[in-house]
Amino acid sequence: MPIKGLIMGATLYVTNPVIHPAALGILVGLEFIFSLGGLLRHNRARISFGPLNYIFNAPALHQIHHSMELHHRDKNFGANLSIFDWMFGTLYIPSKDESWRYGLNEEEVGATNPHVRLRDYYLEPLYYAAASLSKTFRGVGRLFRWNSRAVSPMSNK
User: Fold this and answer.
1) What phi, psi does 89 have (nearest 5°)?
2) Structural contact between residues 57 and 81, judged by C-beta atoms closer than 8 angstroms
3) What is the pLDDT of residue 34?
4) pTM for this one?
5) Domain layout of the chain by residue ranges
6) Contact 60, 94 (CB under 8 A)
7) Mean pLDDT of 127-141
8) Over 72-133, what HEC string results?
9) Residue 93: which pLDDT band, with cuts at 50, 70 and 90?
10) Distances 14 to 2, 5, 10, 11 between C-alpha atoms, Å
11) Residue 91 pLDDT > 80
């Protein structure tokens, strides 16, 4: 969080804008609220906003995102708002008496851990995207009946 303050301070110093004190106070207040929300979302306090869970991401909802339970997989991606999870069908609201464990599940530890090295953690999304694009382009090639043996429509042969 301090890095945002340093960047904002340096930007304000260099640009020397005229800022109304009330606007600065509002920005500081919002940053405090968002930082407090981040701390609450990443601890074990199961705070819920009741019916507002469909709009705002309560700490209990975001904690589902870090659950090792398979039925919680790919749920509750929002940081501050859960309305997009609701719209796209990834919202999961836990019941009051529901419990879960945090971390990786049994299939992702030990020999089957997809992130044995730190570089695997950072490169996995790129490998996944490349594989997905490769399948997509192969599908497009089949659609137009092009493949690696076919002659390109641009060639003179």
Assistant:
1) 80, 20
2) yes
3) 83
4) 0.56
5) 1-41, 46-113, 114-143
6) yes
7) 73
8) HCCCCCCCCECHHHHHHCCCCCCCCCCCCCECCCHHHCHHHCCCCCHHHHHHHHHHHHHHHH
9) very high
10) 18, 14, 6, 5
11) yes
